[in-house]
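Bug #77: duplicate submission created two jobs. Keeping one. Sequence:
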Amino acid sequence: MRTIVIPTDFSDTADNAAQFGVALAQKLGANVTFFHAYNFPNADPFKPVFSSSGSAIEPQELANEYKTAIEAQLQDMCRQYAERTGGDIEFDSFSASGMTVDRVVDTMELVEGSFVVMGTKGYSDRKEILLGSNAARMVEHSPVPVMVIPKDATYKPLDSMLFASSLLEKDMDPLELLIPIAEAYKAQLHLIHLDEEADTEDEKDAMEGYKEIVHDRISYARLHFHLMKESDVIEGINQAAEKQEAKLIVMNTLRKQGVAGWFKRSLSKEMVFHTHLPLLVFQS
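Kept job's structure:
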């Protein structure tokens, strides 16, 4: 049984991501684990803490109360979503002290998680990249696929997906993992390659060769191929997503020196900050 891990800080952004994660679990017949990473309000275990009445509170007592409150919130989330889904999904929850990404990775191993679904602040000016984002770090460090949900994304069935391809055979593993998700949503799946020399015969031949590789390994009737001339990969992906009315953008973390800068840097990480659509990133 697959398990989808949904990190939460109980914010509106996290709650929005939870809706996407639970909907994905319903489609895939997966279980859901909600997770929260915390740091105790009092970082100094030897420094006394005082209540509003002025009485001292032992640091360990405070820590225990804080953890109990967190776990109660997580259990409440489980109950609420169990009621919404009519008992179709098994919900569980975990909490741990530490950095979010590190603790989520630990939890994935513990529950044998298949996906991470988490929220992000989403679209931002390209000059203002917040490299410390948990979502961006998760994309780079997670051992499993990560679906990142911008805070302003409204849930809609994922009936159109855009897969950004580098035309390499190594794209095939992520693509094969994507097919069951596309099938679950009966989605149109658009494979797009962007290059500033897309109108050359070499690029056209490369696309035809890629089609043969894909068709040899994958049978999916709603599969479409697109070659787009564009030097700015991120801008091109967003334009193509709008044109194809995509509900989900899919990338992998493969790095490659290319004419258009395909994966020269961590484009999947950068894409976290420059899309208003859900983004699914596979690790290559």
